Amino acid sequence: xxxxxxxxxxxxxxxxxxxxxxWRWAKERADFxxxxxxxxxxxxxxxxxxxxxxxxQAAVPKAA
Length: 64
Hints:
- With 64 residues, the protein is α+β, with helices and mostly antiparallel strands.
- The protein contains three helices and three strands.
- It has helices at 8-15, 19-28, 47-59, and strands spanning 5-6, 36-39, 42-46.
- Strands 1-3-2 form a three-stranded antiparallel β-sheet.
- It is globular and about 40 Å long.
- The N and C termini lie far apart (37 Å).
């Protein structure tokens, strides 16, 4: 399957979160997919990695 690159706004919308949350998770969560810097002004996230991370989060039971 071809991997699709998502710009930060697209990645945030894909996960249903805001851009600030996306960047905070990328910085603070060790398990969150890291962004790929294509150039000085272009950063993308791999959609397959985001999907795998999202699905893994759904599988983990939440603490009460």
